[in-house]
Amino acid sequence: MKGVSFVTDETKKRRYAQIDLKGIAKYDDSAIEDLMDLIIAESRKDEKSIPWESLKSELIKEGKINVSNSRKAVSRKRA
What is the mean pLDDT of the chain? Predict the structure, then answer.
């Protein structure tokens, strides 16, 4: 993508991304969002994975998701 360049360290490993805001202004918002998603994913690639069921249980305990409401929403969408 034009407007994005990478700075590497002495071992040629990418360390930083430089974004020329004027250079990427010609792209639509979805392309810029995709770029940001890629940058975030790349920065987190070495983080430990969390199984979905463990994360889901944690979110339920914290009250951040409600299983009964989410099931109702899904069944309403299918109707």
Answer: 82
Region 9-19: what's the mean pLDDT? 87
CA distances from 2 to 7, 8, 20, 35 (A): 15, 17, 9, 11
Residue 18's nearest CA partner among 36, 1, 4 is 4
- How far apart, in Å, do the first and last CA atoms of the chain sit? 42
Give the pair of three-digit tokens for residue 33. 């969002």
Q: Is the pLDDT of residue 79 over 90?
A: no
Q: Which residue matches tokens 């792209």?
A: 27
What pTM, to 2 d.p., does this model score?
0.45
Q: How does 24-57 read in b/e, with b if 16+ C-beta sit within 10 Å?
A: eeeeeeeebeebeeeeeeeeeeeeeeeeeeeeee
